[in-house]
Design goal:
By secondary structure, the protein is an alpha/beta fold. It folds into two domains: 93 residues, Urease, subunit C, domain 1 (Roll), CATH 2.30.40.10; 290 residues, Metal-dependent hydrolases (TIM Barrel). It has eleven helices and 17 strands. α4 links the parallel β11 and β12. The longest helix has 21 residues. It is globular and about 65 Å long. It binds zinc ion (ZN). Zinc ion binds next to loops.
Length: 397
């Protein structure tokens, strides 16, 4: 049996449950946290001791909004052989794991279901990767100027059609349903403010997803789409760029729904010039300011569940894996501890996985990052690779 101890761990109280210890030795059995004990506790029958020398032991990080198929900007629409896709997507998944993300939620794959293959191979122990939560192909209403790439999306039209496609996605292995509610910031010809879906369609998705024991996530920038999604019980509002005061009041104090902002990617808007909503400098500057204001308002003035999402292509992620942290910290003024909670327990709650991950607690899955320094005091401790990453009790490095 895999039974070992991680010694001399500094713990962050807000990310730890069931113990008041600020330093501890943590016992791992197979893929579980078996004990959180005082430093120096003697455990019998252990195979190994890893002394982390007062580094911080945190729950593994969660990115609630990635697309493993976004290997580089150009791959959005490139026709890659389906058999290649899984290898490529594993490359992205592995990068995430090495940067401390032990769970990633893929918010839209293409129809060859490569992220499902990565998920299943990791689950079966064939590969080392993060836990992957999969949407499968997204559901996109056909609309003027909303270009449906048939490789990536199911084009939806009406309640009955939506019902069939949600069932289809779940049957083929989707863990949740991803829906498009508004136009995009970066897609040619799109207006992110425009609501592109009907309420009866959202209602149907939520109903069928709920009846199958799962939930719906929606791409929604504009306030009208966000509001319709909240009214109809969508669990996670992705981007939520222009969320209004009125909608925030509806979300106040709720634990069954929340938002997953993706603000770090706004630094990339210049890459998406031609034909996009942010085609010119004025519009770009104004848009970024507006998003910062709306998400800042959600954080500073409301009690709303906020998760962690990045939504960037792998090449941008590799350029700066910390852009989302830096943006939330420097541009939006989020506190260190709230950023850390968003990257762990808040996202675990939104993904309905808080019984399994998100805090250091006896019985939970042994997914950890060990950080040199104390990121609750200085967030810059997160701006480098973790000292160790542990997934399902297995030490990755
Ligand atoms: Zn996305």
């Amino acid at each position: 049996m895999n039974r070992y101890v991680i010694k001399n761990c500094k713990l962050i109280p807000e990310l730890t449950e069931g113990t008041g210890l600020s330093e501890a030795d943590v016992l791992i059995e197979e893929d579980r946290i078996a004990d959180i004990a005082e430093v120096g506790t003697v455990f019998e029958d252990i195979s190994e001791t890893i002394d982390v020398g007062h580094a911080t032991l945190m729950p593994g990080l969660i990115d609630a909004h990635v697309h493993l198929r976004w290997l580089e900007e150009s791959s959005w629409v490139t026709d890659v052989r389906p058999s290649w896709r899984s290898f490529d997507e594993y490359h992205y998944a592995r990068f995430m794991l090495e940067n401390g993300y032990t769970t990633v939620r893929d918010c839209g794959d293409d129809k060859c279901l490569a992220s499902e293959a990565v998920r299943d191979a990791e689950k079966a122990g064939y590969i080392e990767g993060p836990r992957v939560i999969c949407a499968g192909p997204t559901l996109l209403p056909a609309n003027l100027n909303t270009f449906p790439c048939r490789q990536f999306h199911h084009v939806i039209a009406g309640r009955d059609n939506v019902r069939a496609l949600v069932r289809d996605n779940i049957c083929y292995g989707a863990d949740f349903i991803k829906l498009y509610g508004s136009g995009s910031l970066m897609t040619e010809g799109n207006d992110p403010n425009i609501k592109i879906i009907e309420e009866d369609e959202i209602d149907e998705v939520v109903k069928i997803a709920t009846s199958r024991g799962t939930y719906c996530a929606i791409h929604a920038h504009g306030s009208e789409a966000i509001d319709a999604a909240v009214r109809n019980g969508v669990r996670t509002i992705e981007h939520a760029s222009f969320i209004t005061e009125e909608t925030l009041q509806r979300l106040e104090g709720r634990t069954d729904m929340g938002i997953v902002p993706t603000v770090g990617i706004l630094h990339n808007l210049t890459k998406h010039g031609k034909g996009s909503y942010v085609d010119n400098e004025d519009r770009r500057v104004k848009t970024i300011r507006q998003v910062y204001e709306c998400i800042g308002n959600a954080y500073h003035n409301h009690n709303v569940l906020i998760g962690w999402g990045t939504d960037i292509a792998l090449d941008s992620y590799e350029e700066n894996p910390y852009i989302e942290i830096q943006t939330r910290k420097n541009e939006l003024g989020f506190s260190n501890i709230d950023i850390l909670k968003q990257m762990t327990i808040n996202s675990a709650k939104l993904l309905c996985l808080d019984n399994e991950i998100g805090t250091v607690k006896i019985g939970k899955c042994a997914d950890f990052v060990v950080i040199d320094g104390n990121p609750a005091e200085d967030i810059a401790a997160m701006y480098k690779k973790p000292v160790h990453v542990i997934r399902k009790g297995r030490v990755i490095y």
